[in-house]
Please model this.
Amino acid sequence: MKENVELRLMAREQLKGNWGIPILVSFLFTFIISIPGSVRDVGGLLALLVTGPMTLGQIQYFTRFSDGEKPPVEALFGGFKQFVPAMLLQLIVTVLVVLWSLLLIVPGIIAALGYSQAFYILNDNPGIEAMEALRRSKNMMEGYKSKLFMMWLSFIGWGLLCILTLGIGFLWLAPYIQLSLVHFYADLKVNRG
Model:
């Protein structure tokens, strides 16, 4: 399997000279999933309904981008074509990670790492059920949770620098992270078969 440094380099190389639409897609994703939280009383429910399809759409966009395409911004909303599976997957992942987190924070992080590839698997297999996507993700991540955790940690320094720019740097960091994670999944898929 490729080193995280190499996966991040691949992402940077692909983004070089092509930052515009990926930045817009990442901004729209963040903006749209944050709107429901501001709705009083039903915000949590609305967020749950929107986050799954938007997450799937973001993965679809960045997967196509990593394949050398120049997908339009509208590709971000492609997850709504699989609304029910994406919404159910988000609901189940949220419940499971929260339940594991009740034990302590570490089991919650381990659970999140184990389920991290479920939306990528749903993207690759549109007819799959949410529980099957989770099962496959868990199996796929066996032995690779620490590698993904280290990938996540590698962005902390960039995040701190983005804070110093009053958050403006996150416009560039978000697509860089998403594309790096797409490359992680693609490499994991090749190595795990």
